Amino acid sequence: MLDLVCSWLLIAFVSSVAIVTLIFYLVGRRARSARLEGHGGVMLGRGLMESTYLLFRPAEKVLLALRVTPNMITTFSLLPALLSAVALGYGHFGVGAMLATLSAFSDMLDGILARHLKLTSDVGELFDAAADRYVEFFLLAGLVFYFRDTPVMLILVLAAIQGSFMVSYATAKAESLGVPPPRGAMRRAERAVYLIHGCAFVPVAGLAWPSVTGNSILHLSREIPIEVAVLVVATVTNVSAVRRFFRIAASLRARSA
User: What angle is formed at CA 128 by the lines to CA 127 and CA 132, rounded to 5 degrees?
Assistant: First the structure.
């Protein structure tokens, strides 16, 4: 029951974001958050991300009043991420999705506070980047444990892990080589949205189908939302990573010439 309640709450929140985004589109409002520069694309629209930021303005004011620092929020984000891995590993997808969402929102808020308080620094950015990698790994590790007896899905989750970290590595490598980081699909925020939504819809699908395990890629069962999400993330991240490395290589050749 708790899984289903968490799922419906997340679906309600997503619906509110969609409504706000539609209103912005109708009134012609443009995206304004500096933190979102370079984000948004085919896999996740910039407008949806901007609407989410707007809905969390009250939370930002509360945290500022409580004198919460960005590093405190970054540290906190690791706890719900770890708990979400445990919940997902044991099949509690609604609870896991809610905890993963809390972790994702914590990561969003630490950047907002850092800019508002003018506390941005190289050390803070390093800490935030490291925490982001752990948070993303926890979510996927929970899925690895859950699908440990389903070989094809286990391979897909491992492929999603590989693709996710290669996309991030491509950006870091481009920066270290002094060339512009190539843009592409399935950045960290996009991956999180797809995986969390896939988890959130599992309990709802469970109202129609029971849980089934086996060797096929997709089952007509309650797990089908997360299976589709993992399939999309695994495919797109790896394609995106390869394309990024080709673009980096092209930039390096052009610079050498």
Answer: 120
